[in-house]
Specification:
It is a single chain. The strands form 3 sheets. Strands 1, 4, 5, 6, 8, 10, 11, 12 and 13 form a 9-stranded mixed sheet that branches. Strands 2-3 form a two-stranded antiparallel sheet. A two-stranded parallel sheet has the order 7-9. Helices cover 11% and strands 25% of the residues. It is an alpha/beta fold and 223 residues long. The longest helix is centred in the middle third of the chain and has 9 residues, at 131-139. Helix 3 packs parallel to helix 4. The chain is built from 4 helices and 13 strands. The chain has one domain: Putative cyclase (Glucose Oxidase, domain 1), CATH 3.50.30. The chain is globular, with a radius of gyration of 18 Å. Helix 4 links the parallel strand 10 (144-147) and strand 11.
Length: 223
């Protein structure tokens, strides 16, 4: 039997979301009831970046690829896992940290940030990528990057006023997405990954036509 680790957070009412007007609160409302309608159904209201999800280039780049156009060949296959749990709060991933790694097409960064899931701390102080490290990964031909944090960008960027929409707004997102690199964010359960070798990753975002991203079921699997 293959070994499988689910890397997805449950979607449920009241779950953590980024505190911004462009990220809605999650609502799960029961409609059909077995005792009355003879079946259960539910209405769900959620954003495209709810829980474990995939960013499409359209998230930050006008006219870029939307989520349904990401190739399955990019989303499924061998993945290299990097243990970066030694990084502290607000510490950047820099090129020197990556030079000893074998950079492959799909990479997964384990920062250990899932320990803050469900806490406001999840959105503050997480490790992020320097511009130089980002360019290094781009130059190495990475096509998919998974992280157990909310973003590859520095959480201290103040998303207000003149920053919104400027070159200072989410620059690392724009660098990766500008090269059609898939970002898988809010990756769960990486604390369960102790053996880092021989894994394949499966990332299956909802096919929302024309969308900038979508919640995804993500897992690791190996024989």
């Amino acid at each position: 039997m293959p070994k499988i680790i689910d890397l997805s957070y449950d979607i449920e009412e009241g779950m953590a979301t980024f505190n911004a007007s462009w990220h809605p609160r999650i609502s799960v409302k029961q409609l059909g009831r077995i005792g009355f309608e003879g079946r259960e159904t539910r209405e769900i209201i959620l954003g495209t970046h709810t829980g474990t999800h995939v960013d499409a280039p359209l998230h930050f780049l006008a006219g870029a690829e939307s989520i349904e156009n990401i190739k399955l060949e990019t989303l499924i296959g061998p993945v290299t896992i990097f243990d970066m749990t030694h990084l502290g709060e607000n510490q950047a991933v820099v090129v020197k940290m990556l030079e000893s790694f074998d950079i492959t097409k799909r990479v997964l960064f384990k920062f250990g940030w899932g320990r803050y899931w469900g806490n406001k701390k999840f959105y503050q102080g997480y490790p992020f990528f320097s511009v130089e490290a980002t360019q290094y990964l781009i130059d190495k031909g990475v096509e998919l990057i998974g992280i157990d944090t909310p973003s590859p960008d520095d959480s201290r960027i103040n998303l207000s006023g003149d920053v919104m929409g400027s070159h200072m707004d989410s620059p690392i997102h724009k660098m990766f997405l500008g090269k059609n690199i898939v970002l898988v964010e809010y990756v769960a359960n990486l604390d369960k990954v102790i053996d880092y070798n021989g894994w394949n990753i499966i990332v299956m975002p909802i096919r929302l036509k024309g969308a900038d991203g979508a919640p995804a079921r993500v897992c690791l699997i190996k024989e």
